[in-house]
Design a protein that fits this description.
Chains A, B: It comes from Lishizhenia tianjinensis. Chains A, B: Keywords: Kinase, Transferase. Chains A, B: InterPro entries: cNMP-bd_dom (IPR000595), cNMP-bd_dom_sf (IPR018490), RmlC-like_jellyroll (IPR014710). The structure is a homodimer of 191-residue chains. Chain A is α+β, with helices and mostly antiparallel strands. Chain A has a domain of 116 residues: Sandwich (Jelly Rolls). Chain A is 51% helix and 24% strand. Chain A is built from nine helices and eight strands. In chain A, the strands form two sheets. A four-stranded antiparallel beta sheet of chain A has the order 1-8-3-6. In chain A, strands 2-7-4-5 form a four-stranded antiparallel beta sheet. In chain A, a hairpin with a 2-residue loop joins β4 and β5. In chain A, α2 crosses α5 and α4 crosses α5. The longest helix of chain A has 27 residues. Chain A is globular, with a radius of gyration of 17 Å. The termini of chain A are far apart. Chain A binds a DNA duplex (30 and 30 nucleotides) through α9.
DNA sequence: AGAAAAAATTACCCTATGGTAAAGTTTTTT
DNA sequence: AAAAAACTTTACCATAGGGTAATTTTTTCT
């Protein structure tokens, strides 16, 4: 468990710049959990029950659209994830979280996460959490509006090395906003 | 000034669900200001100096890309806006805020906004602010990934009635992620 | 008001991506 | 190990949107 603390602390430092008490409080309420590939951590249409820290593995955030799914986000080792919109609005939401490989997480109930938010130290945690989530989303929007799918693919591969090996092409394609066929073409061209 | 209070309060209620003390504190530090069309409220590469509440008019958030600009966001009457990424990171940022028509704002220095954030009431304000900004961005990302430019255009027109009359087509086009020529075609088709 | 500048529209052709289908590959199931 | 299912690649054609340029309309400047 000491190992988690080290890694969790590192994630906090990179992500939040929150005071040390905040992550201690957070860590104290975490429960370890293992999810196999394709296991659904949060189902579309439900309210989010947990806030996750990924120790090892990866999780995809999906939106089901007609018969297809669109991948809105990936989260890998050392990152946090959840259907944050559901947490914030306290309502059911259509995002679906799925393990993309065997994944070890530490999760905290949203109930506890919210209770944390009532304390002043948690207030800061919640704020930092929302702020960094916003910055990430803003970057994604900028990429979608200003970069070609080829650029976006190359940057994704840089940001998450080996992502092509760990995550199905179809998920990467939908994340980029293109079809698997188009991604396949891109890959062939610049292989 | 009573008028502002009413409208500002309304904006808070719609946006933040923050306690009444938060917006009173906010309103107390605001300074009224009028910007003419095309006036730059925040220049690319600078740090954000103000946090704005728009009483009447509109502001565009732009990112300059090569010789062009891309519109990332619009803000109209009763909304807040700023280069939020710069405020959060406390660093210079490339977004540029421009008045799209004659616009009356009430602005607060980021310095004061941050000081507010140190009080517990401001902590909540900052958190709510980040949270609602995140939700907005998430929605934008979803639209970009799941909807056609035609759908996005129609929804933009619904969300901000008369937007086609108040804002230049080229800005709307870049917000949608297409060229003015393509937007022109769309408009002709469904006029 | 008239001239100049900027923006919007239209047109033409071109390219990136979509849709469908089929072939090849990998993974899962039995 | 064989069969089935799922995924990836390839191919072919269709289409939305881009690039350039010319024309018209609107806005700005003098």
């Amino acid at each position: 468990m000491q190992n988690l603390s080290t890694q969790l602390k590192k994630a906090f430092d990179a992500y939040f710049e929150a005071p040390i008490e905040a992550w201690e409080e957070f860590a104290a309420h975490c429960e370890p959990m293992i999810h196999r590939k394709d296991e659904v951590l949060k189902k579309q249409g439900n309210s989010e029950k947990y806030f996750y820290f990924i120790e090892k593995g990866s999780v995809g955030v999906f939106l089901w659209k007609e018969n297809n799914f669109v991948c809105l986000d990936f989260a890998f080792d050392g990152q946090f994830c959840c259907d944050y919109m559901s947490v914030l609005t306290e309502e059911p939401n259509d995002l679906e979280l799925v393990a993309l490989e065997t994944t070890k997480v530490h999760r905290m109930t949203v109930e506890n996460f919210r209770k944390l938010g009532d304390k002043s130290i948690g207030q800061i945690l919640m704020r930092k959490s929302a702020e960094s989530s916003f910055v990430d989303k803003q970057k994604q929007q900028i990429d979608l509006l200003t970069k070609s799918s080829e650029e976006r693919y190359r940057e994704l591969c840089q940001r998450f090395p080996k992502v092509e090996l760990r995550v199905a092409q179809k998920h990467i394609a939908s994340y980029l906003g293109i079809t698997p066929q188009s991604l396949s073409r891109l890959r062939r061209k610049h292989a």
